């Protein structure tokens, strides 16, 4: 074709169709799963965190609880501190009178209440943020921090994952995009119920994609539903 000659419209149209067809045939992957596999790195640290102990796995997601649940606990604690301070101010004069002793007692008791409240908030924050759900290409691990010195770690293989459900009920879960992620098991193990999960629909989809990939890798073309 002469370089000054315009391309044939019909030929250009066919070329565009062929290009679009090739693009459409590329399999779409979930962005969370895609990012996990692109950032894959082998790690092994016997003294490290629970999600760093298996160098053969690909970590897809490390889910921590949504901030709204912690906000509720902060609000409850602040209201309790305010109520305690109100009782101290109201009741102390009836015990110590209206002199300087009563004022000193009010200041001392108020300082104790505020200090204990602040310490409680620090502990609540640490416990709340220690809860996590770890999804890899092989396992699902749930870490429940029940108290400051009480921790429960449960692991579930993809082979035993029966169903994954994301639930959002109410105005606040919908507005702030959090909910409950339920991982139902096929065996005798207890189901994993992760409350205050941020963006539960996206993480449920990522877990389902990881499960499908696991069965495709370890069971040929057999689908998870045919267990």
How would you describe this structure to a colleague?
The chain has 227 residues and is α+β, with helices and mostly antiparallel strands. It folds into 2 domains: 28-64 and 133-219, PH-domain like (Roll); 69-127. It is 48% helix and 22% strand. The protein contains 6 helices and 7 strands; from the N terminus they run ααβααββββαββα. The protein has helices at residues 9-24, 31-38, 67-96, 100-129, 171-176, 200-218; strands at 59-64, 132-136, 139-147, 150-157, 161-167, 178-185, 192-198. Strands 1-2-3-4 form a 4-stranded antiparallel beta sheet. A 3-stranded antiparallel beta sheet has the order 5-6-7. Helix 3 (67-96) packs antiparallel against helix 4. The chain is elongated. It starts with 8 loop residues before the first helix and ends in a 9-residue tail after the last helix. The model is unreliable at 21-27 and 42-48 (pLDDT under 50).
Q: Can you summarize this structure?
A:
The chain is of the alpha+beta class. Helices cover 48% and strands 22% of the residues. The chain is built from six helices and seven strands.
């Amino acid at each position: 074709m002469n370089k000054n000659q315009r391309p044939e419209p019909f030929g250009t149209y066919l070329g565009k169709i062929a290009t679009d067809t090739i693009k459409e045939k590329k399999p779409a992957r979930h962005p969370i799963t895609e990012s996990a596999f692109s950032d894959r790195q082998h790690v092994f640290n016997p003294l490290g965190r629970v999600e760093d102990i298996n160098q053969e796995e690909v970590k897809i997601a490390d889910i921590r609880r949504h901030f709204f649940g912690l906000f509720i606990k902060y609000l409850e604690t602040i209201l309790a501190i305010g109520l305690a301070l109100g009782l101290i101010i109201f009741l102390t004069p009836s015990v110590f009178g209206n002199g300087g002793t009563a004022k000193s007692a009010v200041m001392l008791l108020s300082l104790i209440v505020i200090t204990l409240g602040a310490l409680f908030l620090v502990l609540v924050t640490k416990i709340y943020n220690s809860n996590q759900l770890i999804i890899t290409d092989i396992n699902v691990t749930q870490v429940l921090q029940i108290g400051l010195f009480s921790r429960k770690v449960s692991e579930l293989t993809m082979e035993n994952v029966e169903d994954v459900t994301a639930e959002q009920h109410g105005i606040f879960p919908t507005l702030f995009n959090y909910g409950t992620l339920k991982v139902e098991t096929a065996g005798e193990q207890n189901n994993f119920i992760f409350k205050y999960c941020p963006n539960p629909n996206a993480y449920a989809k990522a877990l389902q994609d990881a499960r499908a990939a696991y069965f495709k890798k370890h069971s040929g073309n057999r689908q998870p539903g045919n267990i």
